[in-house]
What does this fold into?
Amino acid sequence: MKKIVFISLLLGLIIFSGCGVQKKVQINSSDVLDKNKTNQNSNKENNNNVKKNNGANVNSNDNNNIVDKNKVNEVEIKNFLFTPQNLKIKKGETVVWTNVDPVPHLIKADTFSSENLLANQRYSYKFENIGTYEYHCAIHPSMIGEVIVE
It folds into this structure.
């Protein structure tokens, strides 16, 4: 009987010890405002970094991998098609191809050629001369495209 009373008291003590006193925490509005200012400054820095790095990471196998900051023309490689298939640009502008397909593609033309572009990889080429540039995928020859430089 004494063991049962002792165990009951011990269990009661364990249960009640878990119910500790809660401490109130006071938050000053100035603390919240300072935290918001810190978050805003951090967001501004991140936005500035995005602006500085926009278009800087482009894969290429030639010396034309610097994306022209003034005008970048995007071509998406998706569903075994170049979209847009025909693109008109100005002399000195850059075209960036992005492979959205899960399979590799290789852009090939008389004057430029990419490496194998795996999924989500990009290739860029800056067009310095006026003319019509026909290109295709060397792996999938039915994929064709054209860049007209004016």
